[in-house]
Amino acid sequence: MRPLCLVAGVILLLLLLLWWAPALSLAWAPVARTITVDQRGGGDYRTVQAAVDAVPDRNSQWVRIHVKQGSYREKVTIPSRKGFILLEGEGPWVTDINFDAHAYDAPDIAHQIDNVGDYSSTYRSATFTVQADNFVARNIAFKNTYGGFNKPAVAALVGGDRSAFYDCAFHGFQDTLCDFTGRHYFRHCLVVGAVDFIFGFARSVYEDCTLVSNMPAWSQQPGWVTAHGAQPGSYAGMVFKGGQIVGSGRQFLGRPWNGQATVVFFQVNMAGIVVPQGWDKWNPAQDVSQVMFAEVACTGPGSYAAGRVPWERHLSYGEVQRFLDIRFIDDGWLSNQP
Questions:
Q1: Which one of the listed residues 96, 175, 179, 280 is annotated catalytic?
Q2: What are phi and psi for residue 113, nearest 5 degrees?
Q3: Is 96 a catalytic residue?
Q4: Span between the terminal Cα atoms of the chain, in Å
Q5: Which of 115, 121, 147, 194 could lock onto 103 through a cystine, CB 3.0 to 4.6 A?
Q6: Using an 8 Å Cβ cutoff, are 214 and 192 in contact?
Q7: Are 222 and 194 spatial neighbours (Cβ–Cβ below 8 Å)?
Q8: Which residues, 6+ apart, have CB-to-CB distance to 224 below 8 Å?
């Protein structure tokens, strides 16, 4: 009987794996080619942009761009015609792409990027811009090193569909990460900023990410972790599952960029830097009747809900499931990435 029990157990395990396959999203797509970047001359190219340019237009096979340890001072753009790129560093603490442009001195690169609305100066300030669909980044940091306050200075703009970031870091102050449009997945990532430091119109999941406020402790004005907007019927939203909010100064969890904004925090540990109100309006007269801002099962001193704004949504475990299910963003594309 023991062999039969063993077989039955294996079959049950396989059935469970198949049942949970959409949630696991195991990645196994092959990489057709690897390009190496080394600023010291030991690779195929010395700059990341040169390696991106070497990827064929309308590419349909995964190409790995491996960036060796170093700090690469350059603005990098992956246009929409260059999909299926895996950008891989050697750790976000030793491999980074950095630049110091801000919205009021950003160069005119509208001819290099596409689908970013009116090419506003905020978008043009990005150190790293990806407009291509089917993109993956691992073990690399993106930094906007502009040192001033009160000027948008984007570290990374993610504008393509089906983009995933694993063990990456994003460093800035105002508008650090432009989660612009499309479906995106962030896992074990670090995002550092103070004012609207995760913003955009995308449908994204942030799993076990660390959000760090670098708002000065002396500032009387709290910052905003998120600034989301969405078009009616787009089902866009930012979902934070696990992870933590830490750092200095004080922070609102977010403010709605428009009346359909959606942000959900689930089981996030919040330090005391989160202000009691939790959320803010873009302006006092803003209509927030359709805004979906919610916290469920969060912990830490910043999660105390007694002082929250009255228009925060109170979702049950059942109601929040549609945001927690990985199918909120994934229809199979995560399992088709390398």
A1: 175
A2: -120, 165
A3: no
A4: 41
A5: 121
A6: yes
A7: no
A8: 195, 196, 197, 251, 252, 253, 254, 255, 280
Type of residue found at 158: V
The verdict on whether 44 is a catalytic residue reads no
Residue type, 75: K
Catalytic residue among 96, 161, 179, 196: 196
One-letter amino acid for residue 208 of the chain: D
Q: Which residue carries 């001072």 as its tokens?
A: 73
**Token reading at 263:** 């942000």
In 139-230 the beta strands, taken as DSSP E runs, fall at 141-144, 156-158, 163-166, 169-171, 177-179, 183-187, 190-193, 195-200, 203-207, 210-214, 223-228
From 266, 264, 269, 268, select the one nearest 279 (Cα to Cα). Answer: 264
What are the mean pLDDT values of the chain's consecutive 10-residue runs (338 residues total)?
44 40 56 98 98 97 98 98 98 98 69 48 95 98 92 97 98 98 98 98 98 96 97 90 98 96 98 98 96 98 95 95 97 96
Q: Are 200 and 181 contacting, i.e. CB atoms less than 8 angstroms apart?
A: yes
